[in-house]
Polycystic kidney disease protein 1-like 2
Amino acid sequence: LHFDQSKSNNIITYKRFDNYINLNFKKNDTTERQKQNYSVQVLTQNSNSIKSDKNILVYRIDMKNIRELFVTLSDSTHDLRFTWLRDKRPDIKLMKNSKYAVNLKAGEVNEFTLKTLDQYQNKIHYIGVSAITATEQTTRSNVIYANFSMIMFSPQCLYWTGIKWAPDGIIIGSKTTENNIHCQTNHSSLFSSFFYTLPDVVDIIEGINHSDSIINNMVCLITVLVIFLIYTTLFIWSKHQDKKDVSRGEIVILHDNYPGEDEVYLVTVYTGDFADAGTTANVCLQLHGNISSSRVHWLYNSNCDVLQRFNDDWFIVFTPKSLGEFKSIHIWHDNYGNKPNWYCKRIEVTDVRKKKKWNFNVEKWFTILNSIENIEHSIFIGTANDWRIKAIDDVRLTIREEYLWASVFIRHPRSLITRCQKLSRIICLLFSTMNLGGENYWPKLFRKK
């Protein structure tokens, strides 16, 4: 359009046109060509169906964000069959059915434009390529492979709405090739395009085809057996520890509570994670509030040892009346046993009825080996570093519970997931990663051959 600038300086904007405008976007020189070379074995007519299914090159494609798919097959050394199926993985029966598959002549360039309706975009689509069955009998030393090249990409035409790039009102034209995107639109805007490149082929059936011989995969077999041996050993150990965690995780009602007392307090004692932080001594505790003080209570559990390293023990204490606001706690032990030294990290006291909590940061050794420390301490509530200690404890608990590998060995006794379950998740994750790694490795090696 030409405007005479001498008559008018106004800008005229055309938003709609009667016919489509053709836009052509050329591929950048820096864009990588997606042409890949593949090989499939040419089988004979008497080959069994399992072996035939293994020799089908399969792409599994999620068409959710793909409007059109362009596929180009060329440089084939043998006649091929090509199919595109929805919610059906190609097998040898479907590949031989002319309703689903088309035959491709050797040496020809075949281009396919695959479009899907909106109601089928959430479905899984499959592309399959196989070699047409050979008429002559082949032997192990005379295996024939059909080599071919394939380019697969999904172009996108977009326009700028003022907020984001959108595909509405702009369609992909019929002149689109691997190096040029043809777009058609009937309105003006800022336009752009891009190539959506599909990932490399990953097909489990093909992976099995290369892994079906144990003799040729002794290293893989030994690796799997060693992993299973380690898993079995750790599983037996984890089962034993899970049984111990049942006792460690229970809430202990202290045996020295008196009947008839109805004020309930939950005392949580956290033992540090230093070496030999747990104790064999008998530990006693007394609570002091602004109204009253509790009796002396012995922190004891008849089912298992308490106050062990990197553990927290929960005790129920009853009192005849409310103790009020807590000011301090008095705690000590009798230095009994072969490892009486104890490192107490902190103690939490919760009024169960009022749902109020008091935190006492102890951070002390209860020992007579050091002149600075003692086996008896009085701890007062409230310090300047409460928030910092609480943050560090939260980080440690997160690592203990959510770090999968470490949680097998340092699992919290009250965790909802057992050690055996965590260990089984690890072995599933490990073998899944190995399997996917093998599936990505074999097709590349196969193409090199």
Remarks:
- The longest helix spans residues 218-248.
